[in-house]
Amino acid sequence: MPTVRQAVVELLRETGMTTVFGNPGSTELPFLGDWPNDLRYVLGLQEASVVAMADGYARASGRAAFCNLHSAAGVGHALGNIFTAHRNNAPLVITAGQQARSLLANQPFLGATEAANFPKPYVKWSAEPARAEDVPAAIAQAYRIAMTRPRGPCFVSVPVDDWAVACAALPHRGLSADTAPDPVALELLAKALEGAQRPVLVAGPEVDEEGAGPDLVALAEKLRAPVWTSPFASRLCFPEDHPLFAGHLVAAPEAVARSLAGHDLMLVVGAPVFTFHVVGHCALFDGSVPLWHLTTDGEAAARAPAGESILGALRFALPAVTALLPKPRRKAPPARPRPAPPAASDPMPGGFVLSRLAAAMPRGAILVEEAPSHRPAMHAQLPMRDWGGFFTMASGGLGYSLPAAVGIALAKPGRRVVCLIGDGSLMYSVQALWTAAQLGLPLTVIVLNNQGYGAMRAFSRVMGTRGAPGIDIGGLDVPALAAGHGVPGERVERAAELDAALARAFAAPGPVLLDVAVELTAAKLYDEKKE
After folding, report:
1. Which residues in the chain come in under a pLDDT of 70?
2. Domains of the chain
């Protein structure tokens, strides 16, 4: 009979989870000893970075990723990015060491109290098996649940002495996780779309997650309807250079209602209805405008405050609806104008930097973003075009995108990955640079350095507050931090130097960092003028 460890290693091979992301501790050593040559172990220097690397790898590859954490406090370190993985619908199988079963009654060192409850509610399923022999089956179950839509992380706690126990070999199990939408409901949707005079589409990250992007484009073109991106979308939802692309909805109820006003039917595809960040009344939910919802996420469908939801795989639903529609008869809306980039100046406007990045980025590069205060400028100056070419976090939790970029680069060998990140965000997970350096990944990190938490400055202005502490973080030597982790770093302070620095960064075979000095936000300048 195999041991628990042998059965789990065979499961990893069978499921394709042959890249393991981890940060080891003593309770994990029985699993890690005599590591097989056909499994790749990717070391992260902090557990939150480990989870984000696995998240990026899973989302970019479309397959579940295996993540091995340390007991108790190690899982605590990781919880921020476990929450982000939950909001990202990232299929992760997370295991963590636990103290020996014989010691648990006396609260031992490294013992995790109620280990299975610790990461809840931000995992789809969680367990600490009652017997050592049940560990392989629990990990197999975690894999299947993680890969069932809506995808997400699952957690298994494994006592340190379980790995050497003999157990039965796991039988092969297959699972087709896609579900077909109700064909009668799709016919009703098609009739509603055919009868509408001014339909509008709102697209979300499930579209790219399912590989249904071309199907959505075909539907929009047949309808000749404008397409908006849903609030806080974590992936590309519609090509942003397409004539039908209307823009990005913001996470405010009144603003969403204004953006979608004038339409007589709304179809939300692959997104919640809607994700908001501020309070307010959304007039769209009063029933005066028909609202339809296509999604794989039953919980999102249940939360929708109005309309008709149809559950099922988008890659089935979208072509079916398109086929039911007649030939286009509406006039296409005018293409959305794109604002001109700001003029060059020193310090550089964020929009200027992003316009030069758009010109310099190699075609086919993957952008991973965590620069919240520059997101409006990014939307204006750096349009995303390629399916599978953009990732960010759906949670708002910082410390995700740099390690996620490492995982994405591992999942997409040969593709240049660009991490666009603020100086504040960088410091949550700067140790991920070390992993990128050790693996020689083609990763270009662009730091938009405004010497603080720019998003908080912007919120201070919106909320009418001044003088809040803890927002400025000047004095960081970002290139030195990069060099200390093995990544060449360069500071760029003048607009005239930017294009050449970007060219050097994209020509480098391995990881490189550019620390770009950008102007302070309007809120900071407002405070300074008042003092």
Report:
1. 452-465, 467-471, 521-531
2. 4-159 (3.40.50.970), 183-324 (3.40.50.1220), 350-530 (3.40.50.970)
